[in-house]
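hi! just following up on the protien thing from before. the input was this:
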Amino acid sequence: MKAVIPLAGKGTRLRPQTYHTPKPLLRVGGRPVMSYILDDLRALGIEEIVFVIGYLGEVVKEYMAKEYPDLRPRYVVQEVQDGTAGAVHLTRPYVDEEVLIVFVDTLFEADLGLIRTLGPEWAGIIWAKEVEDYQRFGVVVTDAGQAMVRIVEKPKEPISRLANIGLYYIRDHDLLFRGIEHTLAQPPGPGGEFFLTDAFQYMVDHGARILTAPVQGWYDCGKPETLLATNEHLLRNGRGGVAPSAFLEGARLHEPVRIEEGARVEDSTLGPNVTVEAGARIRGSSIRNSLIGPGAVVEGCVLRDSLVGGSAVVRTFHGKVSLADHSLVEG
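and the predicted 3d structure came back as:
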């Protein structure tokens, strides 16, 4: 089995962080978002991954070569941002067997092992999460046997609360690409985009059975406030703690916090929900609900709900900041 990961988007909702770093490589809980997913794929036995790259694609290549040398990445470039169907269509030369398609805007807690036990009557799996604010999402409508009947984008009526989370397994890859070609032959949707979900609808309309499977957790990393909320979830579930090599003097910690190797915290109050990455220095400050990047310096500040990039410097500032790497702010 192969995997497809589309990540050609520019991550505009997370600027300025994404001016230098592709959105999937932004760090949460001390690790790039995409690394959590890559580890899941590797555990499943997947070795070949087709990345659909565009903006900052060279950064993705460098990261994969350094951090995942055991995997076999392939890269295709989406030069025109024409939607999810257009992105996956570019991978067709490399997808000649069953495929797992993962969009890496989110983290998920899903039983991928279900793929190995799926009965032969199923053409694939679409994972979904029950939500209250269903109008924000594409939702999956199922029959009594949990087979997908249709997907509806941002419904006005409560026809389903099962939100499509962007995680799919497709066994019948030939029918998938026929569905994508059919979708690309139609007029585009809003914003000139073609949606992969329309290809799934084509599959169902042509007799395929796609199982709708639940996820235990689904955590958005696509905008600052949800990135911070996901960080808190990770810190409360195993990613918190203070590294042995971190230096703390006069530090007051309100859990959950994460303080990494070589970080220094002096005369400061941290937490709840603060990650201080490796080599960062915090002095005479109060910080809560924030991510402080590697090598950053924060002195004499009161920070709330903030994202401070790597090697950024913030001094005598009170409030909320969102800073790219190597920024300087003096209040």
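The domain at 2-220 is CATH 3.90.550.10 (Spore Coat Polysaccharide Biosynthesis Protein SpsA; Chain A).
The helical segments are 33-43, 57-67, 84-89, 114-117, 173-184, 196-205, 224-239.
cheers
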